[in-house]
Design goal:
two-stranded antiparallel sheet, mainly alpha, globular, 408 residues, 12 helices
């Protein structure tokens, strides 16, 4: 009797168990709490990072405008900014362990919103209400759109949760969708790097695409490292898995190269362009990597995915409007270009311009050496040659006198 009842019991319990597993990502209230905890940690971290960076910038500006001989790292304001910066980075790092990757990455728009608000509040110049509204209307609209987009991201974000154990990460790492994604990303990265280094394609989209490709791998490894640390703190030790240290090394390496490309972009382009275009490209690539590696959108319905995509688009538009209104730095022109006026001819000597272009020299009146010397940034001087009358071995003058004919 007992043997005959046991198969019936197993058949009755099997559908219940499979049903519980299939609906767990959507009905478990604890998963939504984890999403909320991760989103709040990310928002707190980005907000604190924005305040920290503005504090450090304020410290530099304050020292530059005063006669204080101290270095910036000897001021309390700079150290306070550094402490808040570390605190904010820890908050963002911890958020990856609770919420899906595709939800945390777009929340970096909070730092752009906070920077815009801080910049508006701490304006040093005098302004009238009409001028203020006309000048900062795009910033207000952008902040509103970014807030709406952030709300949609949190509300309709992916709700897939998985323990970041060594077995799960290894299984995702060798899955064919991620391997195919890695192959495409490596090929694209090599092509962009070739055009950037060999063909001098210093376009902002090329550089920030390199940053975005590296950043997608950075956030994937950050989530793995943060998740394994949290699981280890909860009692299930994961630090003895080799995959943990592989992810840690990849996280550090990609972050360093990403910072290097960002530094190169900041030397060529305005920070507002880097902030807007970089946010759009990095967020798009990171969401794609999260959906491929961690399968963030598995089991999500079409409505949630469409609303999440709408939230991303609104956040993108908000960040673009915020950065669009920032003042762009006007480059200093060290000399008046000879071809500034239409119809004026340049002075040439065998096709070599006497006065260099604006990007070639920063010395007023500098001459480009015809001997192809590398030091073109220093003004060229003509050597003084004393005339020796009556000597046969007289050297030719260092300059050439052009003889104009009557026809000219």
């Amino acid at each position: 009797m007992e043997g005959g009842n046991s198969p019936n019991l197993q058949l009755q319990q099997l559908p219940l168990a499979t049903a519980a597993v299939s609906v767990q990502p959507h009905t478990d209230s604890f998963s939504y709490k984890e999403n909320l905890i991760g989103a709040l940690l990310a928002i707190f971290g980005h907000l604190v990072i924005s305040i920290a960076l503005n504090l450090q910038k304020y410290s530099h500006i304050r020292l530059a405008g005063s006669k204080d001989p101290r270095a910036y790292f000897k001021t309390k304001t700079w150290w306070c900014g550094l402490f808040l910066l570390v605190l904010g980075e820890l908050g963002v790092f911890a958020s990856y362990a609770f919420a899906p990757l595709s939800l945390i990455v777009p929340l970096s728009a909070v730092s752009v919103i906070a920077s815009a608000i801080i910049g508006i509040i701490f304006i040093k110049e005098k302004w009238k209400p009409k001028d203020f509204l006309r000048r900062y209307v795009l910033s207000f609209v952008g902040c509103g759109l970014a807030i709406v987009g952030t709300y949609l991201l949190i509300t309709f974000g992916p709700n897939s949760h998985e323990k970041m154990t060594g077995e799960n990460i290894t299984r995702h790492l060798v899955s064919w969708p991620f391997l195919l994604y890695m192959l495409v990303e490596i090929i694209l990265f090599c092509l962009l790097l070739y055009f950037y280094k060999e063909k001098n394609a210093n376009y902002i989209v090329v550089i920030l695409l390199l940053v975005a490709l590296l950043g997608s791998m950075t956030v994937v490894t950050v989530k793995a490292v943060a998740g394994m640390i949290v699981v280890s703190i909860q009692g299930n030790l994961q630090l003895d898995y080799p995959i943990f240290y592989i992810m840690l090394v990849c996280m550090i390496a990609t972050a360093i190269f990403q910072a290097s490309f960002l530094a190169q972009a900041s030397q060529l382009y305005d920070s507002s362009q880097i902030a807007s275009i970089g946010y759009i490209l990095s967020t798009t690539m990171a969401i794609t990597a999260g959906a491929t590696f961690y399968l963030d959108f598995t089991g999500e319905d079409i409505l949630h995915i469409c609303m999440f995509a709408l939230g991303c688009l609104i956040a993108f538009l908000g960040v673009f409007l915020i950065t669009r209104n920032r003042k762009k730095s006007v480059p200093f022109e060290p000399y008046i270009s000879m071809d500034a006026m239409t119809g004026m001819q340049n002075m040439h000597d065998k096709g070599i311009a006497v006065q260099p272009d604006l990007k070639a020299s920063f010395s007023y009146g500098a001459l480009e050496n015809n001997d192809s010397m590398p030091e073109i940034y220093t003004p060229a001087t003509l050597p003084i040659v004393q005339e020796q009358h009556g000597s046969k071995g007289i050297s030719a003058p260092p300059y050439r006198v052009l003889e104009h004919s009557k026809k000219e």
